[in-house]
Write a structure and sequence with these properties.
356 residues, alpha+beta, Methane Monooxygenase Hydroxylase, Chain G, domain 1, 2 domains, seven-stranded mixed β-sheet
Length: 356
């Protein structure tokens, strides 16, 4: 059963439907889905764009086939691809539901891995992400992305140029390389977030305006997205490195363990930035409170100085007929002098007490 891929509100439509029903959950898209394939062996590489009908006959016994799918909103294409590679309906359901958390599932003939690929959005500089799903078989890897553009170009270059051991290894090593590229990109994202945190620390102290608070909230959201992407991925990589699966060859285990160390490093850095961002909000509130206290102190000093002056002016403003000093020639100037002396005396007193 297929549900309109452009609805975007798949969760409501999924209620009550049988397991394995294909419903696209994610950003609505209408562009064509792109399929590309790289078929390689130690001695040869073939790379081309294909249609879903051309998937038959792609797999060879002595080659590794990497099929990349740009777009998961075309449900008919995803279903057809699943039929040609005998993919489980629940796996296909998870591919088109782009709100999955990173995970790894083992089936009889393949592994299914879900992870999040992050990027900086050009519109507002905030952090964005998309789901990447990997199906790892005995001689193939199928990667599903929400949209064109990824961080896998270095992997493609290594395959074309026979750099490293990727052409000599199997599909499990290719899957490791793809996950490693995503994790390496996390370090670039963290570097960008770290620069923004340092910049925000200076802005919070120098200009604690309302737009600074909005920027702090955006940073907090970015850190939360990073945490949701990285923490489950630790368990994914750890499971791949530990599980006794014929699809993960012993030669790939050291690389997976090294990848696990990288995910731990990213997770620790994310937690550090989350603490720093939480501290930024506290600093913002403290600076705002201190500025308010300074304003209140100035207003209090002004009011305190004018209290005795107002008293003197009030006494001599009562205009009783028989009040003393009213008939003095210099009474007005003498009163002003007394008021000035009182004001200056109070300022000197405040200065000595370091209230000014």
């Amino acid at each position: 059963m297929a549900v309109d891929a452009n609805s975007g509100g798949g969760y409501k439509r999924a209620v009550g439907l049988p397991p394995g029903t294909l419903i696209h959950v994610g950003k609505p898209r209408t562009d064509d889905v792109g399929l590309s394939v790289i078929n390689y062996s130690p001695s040869d590489v073939v790379e081309r764009r294909i249609s879903v009908e051309e998937c038959d006959g792609l797999l060879g016994s002595d080659t590794v086939t990497w099929i990349n799918v740009d777009g998961v909103h075309d449900l008919d294409l995803i279903r057809t691809l699943g039929e040609r590679f005998n993919l489980h309906p629940l796996l296909l359901e998870d591919i088109v539901n782009t709100r999955q958390r990173p995970k790894v599932d083992e089936y009889a003939d393949y592994l299914f891995v879900v992870l999040k690929m992050l990027y900086m959005q050009e519109e507002d500089g905030s952090l964005g992400g998309e789901q990447v799903s990997l199906v790892v078989g005995r001689n193939f890897v199928i990667s599903f992305q929400e949209q064109p553009g990824d961080v896998f170009d270095p992997i493609r270059s290594r395959i074309r140029g026979a750099k490293g051991r990727i052409r000599e290894a199997g599909p499990d090593y290719l899957a490791y390389a793809l996950i490693d590229a995503v994790v390496d990109n996390y370090f670039l994202i963290l570097e960008s977030v770290g620069d923004r945190v340092e910049e925000m620390e200076d802005r919070v102290v120098a200009e604690p305006e309302l737009n600074v608070l909005r920027a702090i909230r955006q940073l907090k959201g970015d850190a939360l997205l990073l945490r949701r992407s990285v923490w489950p991925l630790r368990e994914v990589v750890s499971s791949l490195a530990r599980q006794d699966s014929a699809l993960v060859r012993p030669g790939s285990l050291p690389y997976l363990r090294d990848l696990y160390d990288h995910t731990i490093q990213v997770a620790d850095t994310v937690e550090t930035y989350r603490d720093l961002i939480g501290g930024l909000r506290d600093i913002y509130l403290t600076v705002i409170s201190n500025r308010m206290n300074e304003v209140m102190k100035v207003l209090t000093i002004i009011a305190t100085i004018f209290i005795p002056l107002t008293f003197i002016a009030g006494v001599y403003g009562m205009n009783f007929e028989h009040m003393p000093e009213l008939k003095y020639t210099w009474g007005y100037f003498a009163t002003l002098a007394v008021m000035l002396i009182v004001a200056v005396g109070m300022l000197i007193f405040f200065k000595k007490r370091k209230w000014l």
